[in-house]
Every structure is written in structure tokens, then in C-alpha cells.
Design brief:
Elements (H helix, E strand, L loop, with lengths): L21 H12 L14 H9 L3 H11 L3 H11 L5 H13 L4 H10 L12 H18 L1
Helix pairs in contact: 1-3, 2-5, 6-7
């Protein structure tokens, strides 16, 4: 029986290139390529994953193929990104990072995540997707590994 893992790197984390979500994308695709990504997590999703590839001018299928075939470390992945990105510059990175930080889940998604974590949907609750996703990941990790 193979173990699966909830991704634990936040979309709000950047590596040395300064691109938010890129380390999480690497982790998810690396896990997926080994059949170890927890159920419910897409390797290459339509949200932050697609946003990150589009912002950097990376072909999603090429990113997936590289990670599956080469099994790179994170620094090796960033080196590959530097060689293959069509728009890796301060302006595109800043614009992308602002989009990641500013993304807000719809009300239904927010309520579902907060409820699953046992938190009230009130003025003190996080509204942004990065923090809501963190809560969701930590809750999923707790359920799968620590409970």
C-alpha cells in the first residue's frame, strides 16, 4: 500500500526566484508523479497552478513532464524554470505574486473550509485563498497523519 501526502508547502511561499506558489507546484507535481499525492489534490490544477505557469510563460504539460521524468530537487526545478520561462522578470513575478496574495475564494468555498476546520465564518476569519488553503491543508494533514 502506498502512502499519499497532503502538500504542506503554502501557496504563499516563494523559493529563491521569488515566485509565490512555485515551490508548492513542484511539491504537488513531484508527489503526483510518484502516485503519492493525497486524494482531492490535483497535480496541475486550474487555480494557482495554471496562474503560475501562465505568469511565467511555461507550458503546463512540459512542466509536468519535466518533473515526472527528471524528478528534480527544488533548486533543479528552479534552474529549469529559469531556462524555460518566457516571462521571468521582476514585473511578471510581482504581478503574479500580487494575484496570488489577492485571490479570494467564493463564499461557499470559504464557508466549507472554515467549517471543516471548526472555525466560525465571522469577521476574524481569513478571507484570502492562501490562508484558507493553508487551513485546509493543515486540517487534511492532521486528519491523514496525526489523528
Amino acid at each position: 500500500m502506498s502512502e499519499t501526502y497532503v502538500p504542506t508547502i503554502s501557496s504563499g511561499t516563494a523559493g529563491p526566484l521569488g515566485v509565490l506558489h512555485l515551490p508548492r507546484l513542484w511539491q504537488k507535481l513531484s508527489l503526483e508523479s510518484q502516485g503519492k499525492l493525497a486524494a482531492g489534490y490535483p497535480g496541475m490544477g486550474r487555480g494557482y497552478d495554471a496562474m503560475t505557469c501562465a505568469a511565467l510563460g511555461l507550458d503546463e504539460a512540459e512542466v509536468q513532464s519535466y518533473i515526472k521524468e527528471e524528478k528534480p530537487t527544488y533548486p533543479e526545478f528552479e534552474a529549469w524554470v529559469k531556462k524555460n520561462a518566457k516571462s521571468l522578470n521582476k514585473e511578471s513575478i510581482d504581478k503574479h505574486n500580487a494575484a496570488v496574495r489577492g485571490y479570494i475564494h467564493d463564499d461557499e468555498t470559504r464557508k466549507e473550509i472554515l467549517s471543516g476546520c471548526g472555525l466560525p465564518d465571522d469577521a476574524s476569519a481569513p478571507q484570502d485563498a492562501v490562508n484558507l488553503n493553508n487551513l485546509d491543508d493543515w486540517n487534511g494533514f492532521h486528519q491523514a497523519v496525526l489523528k
